[in-house]
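anyone else get weird line breaks when pasting these?? whatever heres mine. first is seq + tokens for prot A
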Amino acid sequence: MTAAVAWLAAAFAPGWPERAAHGVAVALLAAAAVLVAFALAEEASVRGRARAVVRSWARSAAETTTVQTLADGTLITRTTTEQTARHLLSAVIHEEDL
């Protein structure tokens, strides 16, 4: 119960509408990137297009991932959906070979 209260307090802390709007915007950006990549994929079948989009998303995620090594030797990798979606959308728009 305490964890639920703590989560609710953090979720609805001041500024929550802006955070929620940002989350929705990122989800819409990711959906748009995937739909555009799917529509422009040069595959004949739906399954082939889906595989091409998954490969493109994975490559975009790999290119936008950052790795940080802490003093104790711990590796931290970071990839955001927003960065990946922007990279994929940019690559599709500029017709880069992913």
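and prot B, same format (seq, then tokens)
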Amino acid sequence: MAKNKEACIAILILLIFNFMNLVLVKAISIDEESSEKVELMYIYLVSKASYLDISSNTATIRATLKAKSNVDKVLITSRLQKKVNGEWKTIEAWTVSKNGYSCSLEKTKSVSKGYEYRVFSTMKSYKGDKSESVASFSEVVKY
């Protein structure tokens, strides 16, 4: 009788594991078939962007940040980066901050031909003693 009880328990455990695998496989299948995009949910941020344009050896760096209207202060630090030996190196960085909920930055910098460039920005929104930080990258520009 004890052996029958042990066998029943073993079969029950196997059935539970098999059921769990079926549920997991189905969940993965649904996720892979989904056409919905996964988007980050921010507490204070509404929109952010970093841009880079290069013309006549001059890079124009732009970054914008818009937060919800109840924030106290916003800050952008943008870095112009150049790819050297496979690594991104910061050439120059600029910071701007404003009381309120929106901020933008626009700077220019001379650059050399034969490299890839991008803008990497960190953006911060402040509300009282709380803050939210996000990163933003421009497209890579080959020049």
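btw re prot B: The CA atoms of residues 1 and 7 lie 10 Å apart. The first helix runs from residue 2 to 33.
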